[in-house]
Write a structure and sequence with these properties.
Helix content: 40-55%
CATH class of one domain: Alpha Beta
Radius of gyration: 62 Å
Strand content: 15-25%
CATH superfamily of one domain: Cobalamin-binding domain
CATH architecture of one domain: 3-Layer(aba) Sandwich
Strand order of the largest sheet: 6-5-7-8-9
Largest sheet: 5 strands, parallel
Amino acid sequence: MNKLNHYSHSGHCYPELVEKFEGKVIAQIKSNLWRDDYNNINRNFIRTLKEPLKDGIKILFLAKISFDPVYGISLQIIDIDPSFTLGDLEKEKQETIEKLNAEKIFSLNKTRKLPLLPKRIAIISVETSKGYADFLKVLEENSWNYKFFHYLFPSLLQGEKAIPGIITQLKRIEKVIHHFDVVAIIRGGGGDVGLSCYNDFELSKAIATFPIPIITGIGHATNETVSEMVSYQNAITPTKIAEFLIQKFHNFSVPVERAKDLIIDKSKRILSEEKTRVQSEAKLFRSVTETIILKNRNEVENAKKLISQHSQFMLKTNIGYVNYYNDQVFKSSIFKLKQNALILEQLKVNLQIQTTNTFKQDRLNINNLERNLLILDPINILKRGFSITLHNGKAVKDISEVSEGDLIETKVFNGKISSIVKNKNNG
């Protein structure tokens, strides 16, 4: 039954029936299921399978065929056997188990190493699922304040669409697998029909071969699915899976707490023993120290008296030497002072003579410079008959500096002459 097509306002159903071979539809027909028949069938399904009649299940049904010249052939379903559907699910389950065993991967995920503290959890569930909410509540509100990191990879969890959805999310997790310690597949309760997707071979294989442990809490108490069988750990409910993770922390923390108590107890005992030993050693040390101090005090007193006597003797013996060397130092100092006074006097005379000679020589040099400057004075040059020609206040040094008609000024010893250039001649 591909689709039930139930209309709630009338209560009637118009099931769409298909037959498939290797995944392809080879036959298809529409049928009728009237309200009263549907209600009876639905009650039987709920009683037997714990779930209502729904899409996507194999059915064994009782029907009658009628023909109408206008509407053609019609197929009216009268009854459906829920035990056949249950048996078909069990057959699919066994086939999947045989395939997994043939490929030797049935128990592969159970061999994965679960970390000592599995605190990073990738969750595959529906965000609005009650099972998901219960799982988080147990983890986050644990009374021991254990901290878990979890991230949701949302997927449908029942029906045929759940299979590709869960496999896709497993592939996504595998890409970031270094961020996680374990994967939890969490779902609320349901009957066997709703869980048939978990017997699918491809989904079971994806779980069995996953590189880190997968734990499942699909939420039912009987008839374990293949996906649950091949997972690392399965629990009846999501709450139990959360408790399983918390227990892992217990398994680590309880021995640590016991070791802590043992260390504290042993430390106190060692400290008490060492305190007693130190007190005993301190008493012995104090007694020995007092004896040594008393002995050394007497030795110090004797040594002090001996040093005093020897010091007085040495002082009397060496006082004569001190007076002798005192006289020698005094006489040597007077001789040195007289000798240095003569040297200083001679240096004074030599300095005066040298200073006088230096002044005389410098005076002669200055007089010679003065005579040379007077000789080079322009006035004296002009007195000897020379003149200076000026143009615009500047001395003319080259014939190219003036032109015909320029006003020039000639400076001689006793005055100035103004002229106008009539012509100029090179050479």
